[in-house]
Amino acid sequence: MSFAFTMYRRCVPKAAQILLISVTWFCSVGHTSITSDFPRLASYFGTKTRYEEINPFLLENPLLVNRKQDLLPNTCTPLQIVSVIRHGTRYPTHKQIKKMKKMHNLILQYGGGSDLVEDLRNWNMWYEDWMDGQLVQKGEQDMNNLALRLSSLFPSLFTAEKFKNCNMTFLTSSKHRCVDSTKAFISGLEQRFFGFPQGSIIGLDELICREPVVNDTLMRFFDHCEKFVVQVEDNDTAMHEVDKFKESPEMMKVLRRISALLNIPEDELNADLIQVAFFTCSFELAINNTENSPWCKLFDEEDGKVLEYLNDLKQYWKRGYGFAINSRSSCSLFQHIFQHLETAVAESKRSQKVSNPVVMQFGHAETLLPLLALMGLFKDEKPLTAENFSLQSERKFRSGRIVPYASNLVFVLYHCDLAETPEDEYQVQMLLNENLLPFPHSHQSVCVYDDLKKQYSHLLENCHVTEECKLLKVGHVSEDEL
């Protein structure tokens, strides 16, 4: 699609445009294939997926910028970038480590009879409780490199002057992995602007804006939404489909196969232990780049598809489209993003410099998934359930392709000098994981800002978090919440 064609079309669907952009999106993001150079299970780890599975070229060059896409041309000037970024690669949580130890102890107690089991028995259980979801060195590199790539893609927004003048905002969740991710991102910018050693510029250490601002109301909105906490987070029945799938024929087939491989009695195993064994493979790959871990040799690709679906079911019902409150609880974050865009447009119309051209916000997969669902992205025609695994092989909602480690949703606001009408002067593009993301209502990769506001006016004007999150009744989630 040419720049000229992209630039001057308002946000209305047209068949030819939809076809072209859909093909582009399918090839660039939605269906990254696993080649012989990649571990065979690498794309099935859901939220434990490494970022490189989405952009495989980063395995060869982690600083390579994807420029083969229709960003707006030179007649459009980027005014502002507003991002929501998931933290980088992390250690397992305390709960996961506890399950990992239990699974390994079962192998030590029962396992035997094969070289694979012997390798697992000899495997060093090096994960310790203190790690508890903290950012690993690879996670710091994820953020450092992301900062270098984004600043290279939008050099007019990311400048040393804007950084030193504190024209950049860095918000974060209070979790250590998010705070440390934010600091690593800032460190990447310092590397780009000032070179090494970092912090050597006179006065740089005193810059207030170098310190991330913690804002859990925005970045952990789910913790502050009573209705979500009571009806979903702390409600066992909300995960009914997940629990059913744990007992499904597909899951039982995986369990029986692993039981036979490890010589562990079936009644000693359950879906959670099988899943944590699978995730141990993912941690070994993401943290240590270990492609031949014995944990990975336990599973084949069919197992991977089943275990990916188990993880996606949880994300769908707890963070995605399963219940309305999942996404509605993110209204404050959505409105916050548009407040930044609105301020930038207003300042530009007054011929002022945009006061806050770079807004970086760091949170979790649990921050991004509800926001994407609120916007209507990656929504399947039929909900994910325990019974329709075989029918959902081509589903849009695949958490590993949407929110891997270091995933990022980026809004870019442009001013276009050659716009056909004054209303077309301000245009917006979205990127997910550094790939252009078509708007769900138009399937186009660019939208006039005023049209975008109209499209989401129901969220900007009528979604009030205080009311959305007010708990009117206690009990099971009712059907009208679906």
Give a written overview of the molecule.
The chain is of the alpha/beta class and 482 residues long. The chain has one domain: Rossmann fold (3-Layer(aba) Sandwich). 45% of the residues lie in helices and 9% in strands. It has 21 helices and 8 strands. β6 (426-432) and β7 (435-436) form a beta hairpin. The radius of gyration is 23 Å and the shape is globular.
Short key terms for the protein model shown above:
482 residues; alpha/beta; Rossmann fold; eight-stranded mixed sheet; 21 helices; 8 strands; globular; disordered N terminus; disordered C terminus; His_PPase_superfam; acid phosphatase activity; glycoprotein
In total, the number of domains comes to 1
Uncertain residue segments: 1-10, 12-38, 478-482
How many strands in all? Answer: 8
- Give the proportion of residues in helices: 40-55%
Radius of gyration based on Cα positions = 23 Å
Stated plainly, the CATH topology is called: Rossmann fold
CATH second-level architecture: 3-Layer(aba) Sandwich
> CATH class, please?
Alpha Beta
Query: What is the number of helices?
Result: 21
Beta-strand percentage range: 5-15%
Rounded mean pLDDT is 89
Q: H/E series, N to C?
A: HHEHHHHEHEHHHHHHHHHEHHEEEEHHH
SS-based class: alpha/beta
**What is the CATH homology-level superfamily?**
Phosphoglycerate mutase-like
Biggest sheet character: 8 strands, mixed
Which outline best applies?
A: globular
Distance between the termini: 38 Å
